[in-house]
Amino acid sequence: MADFAPGSTVITGENVLLESNTLELRGLCRFAQIRELKVLLGVQGSDGRATVRFIDGQNCETLPTLYKARIGIPGLTGPSGLGVAEAIKATPLTDAAPEGLGFLACFEAFSLHRWLAVSRSGVNSVAILSNDIWTTPLKVALLRKKVSAELGRLFGLSVAHSNADVGGPILVREAGANG
């Protein structure tokens, strides 16, 4: 992250750090403050579900949660057996969330119900955070991108992916860049 222009926004993949890893979270926050970065960090919550925390160097004590995954991989992360009504509920975004940007975490990108919830929340684009290290040799990331492209078109949402896999992309909006 030291190479990013000051003022840039960075979106990491899913579960880059554990929520209990407060020392590293605060260190990253101080780094963001020094580099004037906004970081939307994929953090694994204490219940195993993915969350997106907002780091901008001004909120190192609070690190607000922008998003918390509603569903996870059945039997592994998060609640399993959600009813349709529960899955369709939008996860409220905080005031710190970038205007027009929603989130889906990993397995949620395959859920028509979660896409419906995101589309109802009034956003125009969605960042899909994932962590596919454990799915090798399966091509889950490729399948997620294909499914997300189709569901994004269906709901009229722009889609971008950020993956915590080794060498996987993170999303960066350089300061002063358009779009």
Describe the structure.
The protein has 179 residues and is α/β, with parallel strands linked by helices. It contains 4 helices and 9 strands, in the order E-E-H-E-E-E-H-E-H-E-H-E-E. It has helices at 22-35, 84-88, 112-120, 140-155; strands at 9-11, 17-18, 38-44, 50-55, 65-68, 101-105, 125-130, 158-163, 171-173. Strands 1, 2, 3, 4, 5 and 9 form a 6-stranded mixed beta sheet that branches. The longest helix has 16 residues, at 140-155. The two termini are 20 Å apart. The model has no long low-confidence stretch (mean pLDDT 82).
From the structure above, extract its key features.
6-stranded mixed sheet, globular, alpha/beta, 23% strand, 9 strands, 4 helices, 25% helix, 3-stranded parallel sheet, 179 residues
Present the secondary structure layout.
Blueprint: E1 9-11, E2 17-18, H1 22-35, E3 38-44, E4 50-55, E5 65-68, H2 84-88, E6 101-105, H3 112-120, E7 125-130, H4 140-155, E8 158-163, E9 171-173
Parallel strand pairs: 1-3, 2-3, 6-7, 7-8
Antiparallel strand pairs: 1-9, 3-4, 4-5
In brief, what are we looking at here?
The chain has 179 residues and is of the alpha/beta class. It is built from 4 helices and 9 strands, in the order ββαβββαβαβαββ. It has helices at 22-35, 84-88, 112-120, 140-155; strands at 9-11, 17-18, 38-44, 50-55, 65-68, 101-105, 125-130, 158-163, 171-173.
